[in-house]
Amino acid sequence: MTIIQPQLNDTFSKKVPKGDDHERLVCDTCDFIHYENPKLIVGCVATYQDKILLCKRAIQPQKGLWTLPAGFMELGENPEEGAAREAWEEAQAKVTIKDLLAVYTVKRISQVHLFYRAELSEPVFSAGIESMDVQLFRWTEIPWKFLAFPSVTWALKDYEKVMGSKHFAPFSNPEPYKDI
Amino acid sequence: MTIIQPQLNDTFSKKVPKGDDHERLVCDTCDFIHYENPKLIVGCVATYQDKILLCKRAIQPQKGLWTLPAGFMELGENPEEGAAREAWEEAQAKVTIKDLLAVYTVKRISQVHLFYRAELSEPVFSAGIESMDVQLFRWTEIPWKFLAFPSVTWALKDYEKVMGSKHFAPFSNPEPYKDI
Ligand SMILES: [Zn+2]
Ligand SMILES: [Zn+2]
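The joint structure predicted for all components is written out below.
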C-alpha cells in the first residue's frame, strides 16, 4: 500500500473523501487524507511475589496519583514489548510480560488500553522520569482512593478475578462504563 | 488531558521534544507534537453454523483475494463495535461479536490487528462497496492459496484451534512471524 506523505507547507480542510462516509482532514494540494485513529495504550499489572508495582505520577495529568506502568504504544514494537518498555521507563523495572488481562476502550478520548499480567524476577525498581515514587503494594495496601485513571482501577480489579487462573478470556470495560 | 490542536496553516519540523527520546513532527508555531501511533485494525471470523464468512476484495491492495471482514477502527467506537461495523460494510452482514480470538502485530506497517469470533444469526449477506463477492465457506473449502493477508490466514488457523473452546487466551503472531 503506497502511503502519500503531505509536504510540510500543505494545508488541510475537512471533507468527506470519495467512497468514505466520515469527514476527514484532507490536504488541499495532494489529497493526502489525515485519518484520525484511536490510540493504543499498553501497560501491565506487574507483580513480585504477592505485591503489585505502582508508580506515583510526577507529571500531569493526575500528578501525585498512583498508576500502573502504561503509555502510548510506539511504532516498531508489539504491545507486549511496549508494555515492558513502559515498565522500564516509568519504574526502571525489568518485567516479563505474560498474558493479556484486558482490552478497555475510552471512547471519549478514543483510546484502547491493552493491559498484560507481568512479573518482576527481582524486587528492583526506581522512579523513572515520569514518576516521583515507585512501590510494591500488597493487595490490602493498594491506595484505591488515589489511583490516577479508571482503567488502572479496572485492571487491578480484573487482575484479582483471575489470580490463580492460567487461561482466561481478557476483560473489557466493566458494565457501567461500556461507553465512557 | 488538554489536547492542543494545530492550526491549518502551521508548519511542522522534525525534532526530539523535551523529555522525549524519539524524533517527532513538531509544530513550528505552537509546539503541537504530531505523534505517529500504531493503527488498530478490527475484524472477525464470523460463522453461520459450520461455515465461515469471507469477502473477495474489490479494491487494492490484494484485489481479487479473499479476506475476513476487517478494517481500521474509527474514533468513537470500541473494537467490538468496529469489527461489527466492518462486517456490515464489507459483507452487509449483521454479526454478533463474541470473544477476542487474537491480537496480531505487523511491525513493518505498525498495525495491531484485533480479531474476534462472531456469529451470523441468519445466512444473509452481500458484497459491500469494498467487496466483489461474499460467501460462506465450509472449513474444507477455504481458499487458502487465495487469502489476502497473513493475518487472515493466522486468524483462520487460530480459529480452528479453539473450535469448541469457551474460554481461552487470545493468540498473538505465530512463532515464525513475531517480528514481521
Ligand atoms: Zn499535500
Ligand atoms: Zn501550531
